[in-house]
Design goal:
By secondary structure, this protein is of the alpha+beta class. It contains six helices and four strands; from the N terminus they run αααβαβαβαβ. Helices cover 35% and strands 15% of the residues. Strands 1-2-4-3 form a four-stranded antiparallel beta sheet, sandwiched between helices. The longest helix is centred in the middle third of the chain and has 18 residues. The two termini are 30 Å apart. The structure holds flavin mononucleotide (FMN). The site of flavin mononucleotide has 10 residues, from strand 3.
């Protein structure tokens, strides 16, 4: 037996882990980085924003703002500003999620909105990928978008009609779970 067999078997077990069909949309959400040239209509864009704003936030403060970038030249600038988002140039729309940072939970609030938008994209048959925004990447994105430095950019999401397919999967790993008290 190959030394890799147990690793492959473990991977296969994880891949085949049971997925409750009621949660299909969660498992079907995958990072899609290839898109067709088809644009997103305004209705789809608004639906994505609606879903993003349905996210939970601390004290329901909803500290998020959204910038929707469909212009090709601007998307190219964003692709250049972010070293791991070259596909922003091909996406139909890039959503920038940002806001006025207030309190310790601001990033968590915006992360919730980001995940909601991703799941909504999957539900609408679109492809999307979360592109994390770090301190090093922020200046170029402020520059390209005109978002003032007084507001903090948390994430960038590239969305479009998918030109690649990825299988749903759960990644369930019981080794990452403790019960009652932390273990090992
Ligand atoms: C905070 C965060 C930042 C990420 N940044 C990037 C990124 O800059 N570029 C990219 O291609 N994918 C990025 N991703 C997507 C991850 O690579 C992806 O979620 C992970 O590989 C798991 O694959 P899946 O989304 O298909 O389940 C990011 C995801 C998260 C949650």
């Amino acid at each position: 037996m190959s030394v890799l067999a147990p690793i492959i078997a473990a991977g296969a077990a994880q891949y085949n882990a049971p997925m409750d069909k009621r949660l299909n949309i969660i498992y079907a959400r995958r990072s899609i980085r290839r898109f067709t040239a088809e644009p997103l209509g305004d209705e789809l864009i608004e639906e994505l924003l609606r879903a993003a704003m349905a996210a939970p936030s601390a004290n329901n403060r909803q500290p998020w703002r959204f910038l929707v970038v469909t212009d090709e030249a601007l998307r190219r600038q964003l692709a250049e500003a972010h070293p791991h988002a070259a596909f922003a140039a091909e996406a139909a729309a890039v959503f920038i999620i940002y806001g006025e940072k207030a309190g310790e939970l601001f990033e968590q609030d915006l992360a919730a909105a980001t995940e909601n938008l991703l799941i909504a994209a999957a539900g609408l048959g679109l492809g999307a990928c979360w592109c994390g925004v770090t301190d090093a990447r922020r200046p170029g994105i402020h520059q390209a978008t005109g978002i003032p430095r007084s507001l903090e950019i948390v994430s960038m999401i590239c969305v479009g009609h998918p030109a690649e397919h990825k299988e749903p999967r759960s990644q369930y790993d019981p080794a990452r779970v403790s019960w009652q008290r932390h273990q090992g």
